[in-house]
Amino acid sequence: MINLCLFGAGRIGAIHAANVSQHPDVQIKFVVDVNQTAAEQFAKQYGATVTDANTALADTTVTGVIIASSTDTHADLMIRSARAGKTIFCEKPIDLNIERVKECLKVIDDFQVACALGFNRRFDPQFNQLHYQLQQGKIGELQMVSITSRDPSPPPAHILPATGGLFRDMMIHDLDMARWLLDEEPVEVFASASCLIDPAIGELGDVDTAMVVLKTASGKLCQISNSRQAVYGYDQRIEVFGSKGMLQANNNTATNLSFSGEQGVITEKPLHFFLERYADAYKAELDNFIETIRGTTNPLANQQDGLKALMLADAALESATTGKRITIN
Amino acid sequence: MINLCLFGAGRIGAIHAANVSQHPDVQIKFVVDVNQTAAEQFAKQYGATVTDANTALADTTVTGVIIASSTDTHADLMIRSARAGKTIFCEKPIDLNIERVKECLKVIDDFQVACALGFNRRFDPQFNQLHYQLQQGKIGELQMVSITSRDPSPPPAHILPATGGLFRDMMIHDLDMARWLLDEEPVEVFASASCLIDPAIGELGDVDTAMVVLKTASGKLCQISNSRQAVYGYDQRIEVFGSKGMLQANNNTATNLSFSGEQGVITEKPLHFFLERYADAYKAELDNFIETIRGTTNPLANQQDGLKALMLADAALESATTGKRITIN
Amino acid sequence: MINLCLFGAGRIGAIHAANVSQHPDVQIKFVVDVNQTAAEQFAKQYGATVTDANTALADTTVTGVIIASSTDTHADLMIRSARAGKTIFCEKPIDLNIERVKECLKVIDDFQVACALGFNRRFDPQFNQLHYQLQQGKIGELQMVSITSRDPSPPPAHILPATGGLFRDMMIHDLDMARWLLDEEPVEVFASASCLIDPAIGELGDVDTAMVVLKTASGKLCQISNSRQAVYGYDQRIEVFGSKGMLQANNNTATNLSFSGEQGVITEKPLHFFLERYADAYKAELDNFIETIRGTTNPLANQQDGLKALMLADAALESATTGKRITIN
Amino acid sequence: MINLCLFGAGRIGAIHAANVSQHPDVQIKFVVDVNQTAAEQFAKQYGATVTDANTALADTTVTGVIIASSTDTHADLMIRSARAGKTIFCEKPIDLNIERVKECLKVIDDFQVACALGFNRRFDPQFNQLHYQLQQGKIGELQMVSITSRDPSPPPAHILPATGGLFRDMMIHDLDMARWLLDEEPVEVFASASCLIDPAIGELGDVDTAMVVLKTASGKLCQISNSRQAVYGYDQRIEVFGSKGMLQANNNTATNLSFSGEQGVITEKPLHFFLERYADAYKAELDNFIETIRGTTNPLANQQDGLKALMLADAALESATTGKRITIN
Questions:
Q1: ipTM value for the complex
Q2: What are the CA-CA distances from residue A293 to residues A65, A68, A79, C197, D93 (Å)?
Q3: Do A256 and B256 touch (CB under 8 A)?
Q4: pLDDT at position A160, please?
């Protein structure tokens, strides 16, 4: 039996717990949350025990931790888990401060624990298949990547500052996909952004609409289009273009029903948001983490990926703010 | 805890067992199979006990049975289960002999047990949604139904006689869908069929390609197109047409990836066969059965549906054989 | 210069005249119509001369005739044109009476003139390409054909008797496509039909909704679905299925625009009706006729095709009326 | 009769001549080309007379000129035509030198002649409809535009210098579309470009792959993706996104045929290149020019549009060269 400790009994923690329950030989032994009530309800539902971080990390039967608590606790819990020798799964971002992220990575490195980072989209069956075919040379030499990523609606404006803003909270996923698909580090970043949806977002110094262009050393180009509000649902598409053709990953829908009526032919909107769109990705991500604990594989996205995506996000933010193209070393 | 007895430890039994395991308060207590080795392996995997039918049916803690054994055992097990007061789930068909089916239904009626029949397609999320929208009046008055149903490859010819042939084994699913969607009993059946794929099928007196036209008393029309071999995969489409428009349920694919290359734009084939295409339907079907045991709902397809679909299949077979349109009373 | 005589200055005559005007060395020299005003207006627009049939057919510079007048005049004009040695293009049907059609064909045969019949769909670029790929063996051995053919709205009920009804006016096009695609004569016809759209149609002894199954001697099957009213537009689809795959010809739309909004993803309805849908087919049909006059090709659809399609239409009507499958000799 | 003079008897001149021939009351009276043989052949085919520019422009019966000669002759011919009081249609670009363009525009302004510029894509039925729906408020407030524009194969490298390179030859069309759709001038331009397809292009100082981001004063964003070689054909797509949804213009194909086989479901590639893709646009563009001569409408794209698109192209080139975002005054 593999015993896990879950930090954070919220919505994303519940997804991971449900996926763990599909594995007969894995269980969430401990759940830790500052909200005692939430922790207890959670513990009851999933047969776990409520405890504190020290106790959980001191338990030698616990081999892995899932960090799904608030962003400001990630780095601390990762460091403590690494020191306790646990295999780590952490939701992105590690931290919003690059220096803090580097400190955290040093400890993980020193204690040589495996660390998976929650870039769940890499596990989406469709994007995963696209990546696989790209690696297989289906489109020849990759030349351009286009990522469209739009949320159905913005988060409440008041929580935006804590998230780090559009580039570090939302686009960071797309920047990770860009790095993964380009298979080469971007060396130049240009961003242009606006507040076109909700003035309250702009008043907080954030943006809700953004476009980015990345370039790698060999000249590959990538463009990203972000919006906080697509009224037709969660728009998640990727297009990779190369010397032998193009692969496109399109939106997923609940069904393939179509209705032909006087207005035209109507098909379904994309699945509503990330919980629906990436349900399979969350499952596969957790499978990958469990296999990592078993020592049979490595994380598909790790702490270094977390650092590099954040660096790109910071560069994009700087570019959008200064109007300058930013060079990455 | 709801305790079930599973008759038949084969492929379809395994699907039901896996779906049962998603329900924390339901378990397969007993598994019964003429193949002792298969039964034991199965019991081990799902934590069940191997036993015989008498013992299982005599156990008062068992409230439901899943009959997934060979077709010739269905009616007998249904009758014995009904007499033992169990809620029944049985794979289709009840029996290939109409008189035997009627005997069986009489017992179920006498003992007033609920009985679900495995017309899994009614539970397919897409077809279910199509049916719902049809009932809601989305296309106004229904006028025509078109069902395309083609297997990726024929079963081994030698097992065909035991299945009852194309009409009673394969088209019976489409005839059930026709009844369900038409919401009115067909009163006329015409069938035309050929052996175009494998002469061995013809030598056994069966066909591999068939078209059927149904008509209801109010004049609604339905056409069915069947083939035992679509090289591009399991082709399962439904189109309903009415006074206000048309609804089409299209094939499901593994992903929505498309590749644009020198040959054209290539998207994925339909999911390979029924295990993939109807995975969600099998889950929903079992949920419906469990809710039936709990007394909170009724079977979406019951024993009467089994009888009526078989009567249509027999009529289609007679029409294809005689060249005459058959009238159903 | 090729000189033509056009019989019938109506809507379909205007289409042919416009297409003729694209050929710099072909002209409509004479136009003949019982409605003198229509004929004169037409003559003015297209630079033709109004005359009567005798004069036109006696003019030795006229080498071809286009018969686009009312159905009851077709056979007479064909016979007179054949006797005058003209190459004939005639809108379908030749006549609604099979015996009269045979008389007409005998004269054409005796005078050995080439005769094209207006089965315009054979010239539709999409259906033509489908036929070509079928002939090239793209789907291997053909096994099944499915034709969906639905008008946007029924003609005024009072004109229905003159048209010969749904089978001989509307489905005759689909029966011709079936013959052309099957590349083998149907030997069995079954039809089922209803009046579901407009009771006035039923009162005139006609139907507005019909399904047909055809079978050839080698066992190939074909199904046709007809409706006089598809509220989403002119629904013209063909699917051919064989041992190596399936070809589908889908509806044409004005543009490939799609709108994603709160209701879903909306694309355009099919083109409204035959004038829009088959505009290119009418052009290609006339090109074929002009090449026939020049002696460089033969009609893609000729008088024999007209006879055989009418025989199938009559058989379908008989089947729908009697409920019996009809055998064609 | 409207008499036109055509400058340039090449491929694009032939398209305009063919479209002129559809108008019974318009003719190409004169054709002027430095290649006397080409001019004579052309004159013969279209019933025109070969002459020189002076003679043609001095002819008072000539009211319009079509300038389809080489780029370096455009400005001179426009100036001379303006002075002669002719209505002008000129292929883009006016000139590759901004100062020369301004000189030219001044003359057109002084002589108050109407001038149409060959931004043919504005006339594409699909893009035109997209623009119309955008103007009608179909997607609410416009926020983002995405233009994908890829050629099937690069022009011969040796002609590239004369064209002005990717930004001024190819992307200028997309920059014009951007201006037209944004309905507001871009004030910032950022470009990133590479030579990834053919090193010979790079050796000439040009690029073959480029991405651009534009921003307007109100914060609307636009991204453009260009490639000189899409092996699957001419990829011409536009997506506009706003507060109430998204409109997408997709590629056009020769037919809507699909083939389902063992490899998947294959549909047609986009139409091969601009002659096929924009055939209807060229027709509509010429209709617009003829209506402009008649005084019943104004050019949909005029000389000012030519100047502004060139300014954006120059800015994009400067940005790609310097790595800086360029501000447009």
A1: 0.95
A2: 10, 18, 17, 66, 63
A3: no
A4: 87
